[in-house]
C-alpha cells in the first residue's frame, strides 16, 4: 500500500513549544479574531518577548510575556 503524502499545510510544525513567527501569527489570528502578522510578532520579539535559542517561540512563554505587559 502506498503512503499518502500529507498536505503542505500539515508539513508545518504545530508544536506549541517551537513555533515560527509565521505559525505563531496565524495561531494568534485564529484564536483572537484580530489579524496578527509575522511582522507584529517580530516587533514583540525585538521588544523583549522570549524566544527559544533556535529562534522559534514557545507559545506559553510568549503569552505570559504578553500578559505581563497588560496594565
List the helices and strands and how they pair.
Blueprint: H1 8-11, H2 21-32, H3 38-46, H4 59-68
Helix pairs in contact: 2-3
Overview in brief:
With 71 residues, this protein is mostly helical.
List SSEs in N-to-C order: HHHH
User: What global shape is seen?
Assistant: globular
Number of distinct beta strands: 0
Using only C-alpha atoms, the radius of gyration works out to: 14 Å
Distance between the termini: 57 Å
What portion of residues belong to β-strands?
Answer: under 5%
Mean pLDDT score: 87
Share of residues in helices? 40-55%
Category by helix and strand content? mainly alpha
Main beta sheet: none
- The tally of helices reads 4
Low-confidence stretches: 6-11
Counting copies of identical and different chains, the oligomeric state is: single chain
Could you characterize the architecture of this molecule?
- With 71 residues, this protein is an all-alpha fold.
- Helix content is 49%, strand content 0%.
- The chain is globular.
- Mean pLDDT is 87; it is low at 6-11.
Please describe the structure with a list of short key phrases separated by commas or semicolons.
4 helices; 0% strand; mainly alpha; single chain; 71 residues
Amino acid at each position: 500500500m502506498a503512503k499518502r503524502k500529507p498536505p503542505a499545510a500539515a508539513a508545518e510544525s504545530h508544536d506549541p513549544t517551537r513555533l515560527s513567527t509565521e505559525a505563531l501569527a496565524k495561531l494568534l489570528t485564529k484564536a483572537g479574531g484580530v489579524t496578527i502578522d509575522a511582522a507584529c510578532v517580530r516587533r514583540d520579539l525585538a521588544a523583549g518577548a522570549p524566544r527559544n535559542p533556535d529562534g522559534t517561540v514557545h507559545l506559553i512563554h510568549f503569552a505570559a510575556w504578553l500578559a505581563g505587559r497588560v496594565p
